Amino acid sequence: MSNSELSADRHHHKVVVIGGGTGLSVLLRGLKEKPFDITAIVTVADDGGSSGRLREEMSMPPPGDIRNVIVALADTEPLLARLFQYRFSQGIGLAGHSLGNLFIAAMKEITGDFVTAIKEISRVLAVRGQVLPAANQAIILKAEMTDGTIVSGESQIPRTGKKIKRVFLEPKDVQPLDEAIRALQEAELILLGPGSLFTSILPNLLVPGISKAIKESAAKKMYICNVMTQPGETDFYTVTDHVQAIYNHVGADLFQTILVNNAWIADDVRDQYMEQGAAPVKYDRDRLEKFGFDIIEDHFIVYETYLRHDARKIGDAIQKLLNDK
């Protein structure tokens, strides 16, 4: 390894990751092992399950995606991480809640502020990096379907059996966090995804000021496309369809690089997903190349119980991108 490469490796690159859901958490578990100074900007549009109940009953942003990201970036005992993720199965009013969600809700009550609560919990759990909500208030995600109907609520949108035309936020004038804008301005790399296109990634990008800050940032910018379609959300979508949906909502020039999985997915795995209404996202390279992106393609998946992005391999690709001048 050359002296310049050693110097690059010692430097903790400032990386901002934007998204939500399981895909983001899996990626962050791999990235935290790299010499990256990570800021995760996480959606606050969730309205289902424990998060939805706390959101409604305590007038706070939903904590679920935030909780998952905190655990993913935590440098703590595995048992404590399991405790934070523990979900009660019984108890009147308690069943269905995760302990971590209740912990965040309690800290919000103690500190008087959701963002401060996240910072304090991150300190307690020795989080490697910074976790920020896209906004310091709950956001209602709405969708206009192609037949003109309007559906309200992140958890309801995929259940309609209709095709999404566009998604939008209420309130429209929700303010981004100053820390999130500053992190985007100072970043060396901004990553979008992986995660649910309409319900995890776009809710962040639609917060006024977030997309503008991304476009104006001098950082390198990459979109990590999902491997599988999501029922009721991206049925039959190709890689290019994902990109086009982002462009339709927030315009072009949001990223220059796209990371795509080109590994064949085994028939038995396809069958498993087909039972849930999901299928592999088709890599339509000819259409994608017309956008002029730098395309990073490789076998970026691992299979255990479910297909997941190979966070270690993606981390290596990201590190190479950052070290390339």
From TrEMBL:
Its main location: cytoplasm. Pfam families: CofD. It comes from the Bacteria. InterPro entries: CofD, CofD-like_dom_sf, Gluconeogen_factor. Keywords: Cytoplasm. It is found in: Cytoplasm. NCBIfam families: CofD_related. Belongs to the gluconeogenesis factor family. PANTHER family: GLUCONEOGENESIS FACTOR-RELATED, UNCHARACTERIZED PROTEIN YVCK-RELATED. Required for morphogenesis under gluconeogenic growth conditions. HAMAP family: Gluconeogen_factor. This is Gluconeogenesis factor. It comes from Ammoniphilus resinae.
